[in-house]
Design goal:
Layout lengths: L10 E5 L4 H12 L3 E6 L2 H13 L4 E5 L5 H15 L4 E4 L14 H29 L2 E6 L12 H21 L4 E8 L8 H4 L2 H9 L10 H11 L10 E4 L7
Parallel strand pairs: 1-2, 1-4, 2-3, 4-5, 5-6, 6-7
Helix pairs in contact: 1-8, 3-4, 4-5
Length: about 250
């Protein structure tokens, strides 16, 4: 592996590591040499991921925690630093999408979505930034969305939160890049995950979405690993405040 993409000696925290995008990125960073702490609520799923990754010889640890509120995010961040030491890389991949018609969205739906998708990444990042600043090096990767830029049916709270993620990423870059901490976001297209299961259960919808891309297919989780490793590595040292759409050209058409 090129030294520019080598993460050996770096400690990464990845939220949402029990499944989907978070787990794929967590494993990918570990394969690139990072020591990875994966955070999620589901201790059993984390334990299964940890066992599989360690069987591959990867340095990973599952850390069960609820990140649903800013207070919980800050507490989890402090607990990780106390147990493992300063963090070099943070990937905010935990998220929720209630997928409800706008007239059925409750105040709880709204607040839960905004808290986990937008507030938690900020408060967790702010908790971990001091260690990055002390080391003069850090990488923060948020997960934006096609809905950061486009509106989809039954997605108002999610779209609002992901639009906020894009602007938060730029604001983080303005705040912290001079300390050697780059802040960027990946905006996935359509990938089969727990959040998109309803979409991928309908083959006609799957085919229609694939046809809307330039490449002609929907994403697979491995498509996100290379971009994540790039943004987490020395190779991206002059890239900050950017939203990288990994969508097969969906937004290009």
């Amino acid at each position: 592996m090129s030294a520019s993409f080598d993460l050996s000696g770096r400690r990464a925290v990845v939220t949402g590591a029990s499944s989907g995008i978070g787990q794929a990125i967590a494993t990918g960073l570990a394969r690139a040499g990072a020591s990875v702490v994966g955070i999620a609520r589901r201790a059993d799923a984390l334990a299964a991921w940890e066992a599989d990754a360690r069987a591959e010889g990867l340095e990973v640890t599952g850390f069960a925690a609820d990140l649903g509120t800013p207070d919980q995010a800050e507490a989890a961040g402090h607990a990780v630093v106390t147990r493992f030491g300063a963090v070099d890389i943070l990937v905010n991949a935990a998220g929720i999408n209630p997928r409800k018609p706008v007239d059925q969205v409750t105040p709880l739906d709204w607040q839960t979505t905004i808290d986990l998708n937008l507030s938690t990444p900020f408060f967790l990042a702010r908790t971990l930034v001091s260690g990055m600043r002390d080391g003069g090096w850090g990488r923060i990767i948020n997960i934006a969305s096609l809905q950061s830029d486009r509106a989809f049916p039954d997605g108002l709270p999610y779209g609002a939160s992901k639009g906020g993620v894009s602007q938060m990423t730029r604001a983080m870059a303005e705040a912290w890049s001079r300390d050697g901490i780059t802040c960027n976001a990946l905006a996935p297209g359509f990938f089969p995950t727990g959040l998109t299961q309803k979409v991928f259960d309908d083959q006609a919808t799957v085919d229609r979405l694939a046809a809307q891309t330039c490449i002609g297919r929907n994403g697979v989780l491995d498509d996100l690993v290379g971009p994540a490793v790039f943004l987490a590595s020395p190779a991206s040292g002059y890239v900050t405040g950017q939203i990288l759409f990994v969508d097969g050209g969906f937004t290009a058409k």
